Amino acid sequence: xxxxxxxxxxxxxxxxxxxxxxxxxxxxxxxxxxxxxxxxxxxxxxxxxxxxxxxxxxxxxxxxxxxxxxxxxxxxxxxxxxxxxxxxxxxxxxxxxxxxxxxxxxxxxxxxxxxxxxxxxxxxxxxxxxxxxxxxxxxxxxxxxxxxxxxxxxxxxxxxxxxxxxxxxxxxxxxxxxxxxxxxxxxxxxxx
Length: 192
Description:
The protein is mainly alpha-helical. The protein contains nine helices and no strands. The radius of gyration is 19 Å and the shape is elongated.
């Protein structure tokens, strides 16, 4: 399961690079990678964060795994954090709230895991500490980046399109922005 997590993280980084460079398929790949990470952490986080291999999980079953209380907080924190990242990078509604909730839960888990890992030497707790620090280091800068800054980062090479995206984010219920965006995409031969 750890290998699957690493592959999904690499896919997410690759997808973000595709999105930044406007390579087709970046949005789909980003959606797949971050959604899959969220599902992995929500659904199988109890085993992944407890150091149990997938093969052992299948053979012994869920009841044989000793789950520490901080693992449950990590499951929810990282799952919500991944979805918050996805919503923020895709400019979907309520992204800020979801990202901040994921940060709060993950920071709580970070403090808890930090206390546990320094009380006793536990390899699993230390790996979880590294995992939390990695995801928080990726997420905290994004939490303090405004939508306008992200739009400039994505579409700075095309100011007219960037202004339409900014207007659409501010007034998402107005169909005129969608029509302007679609007509501009068609005129320039951009991906839908």
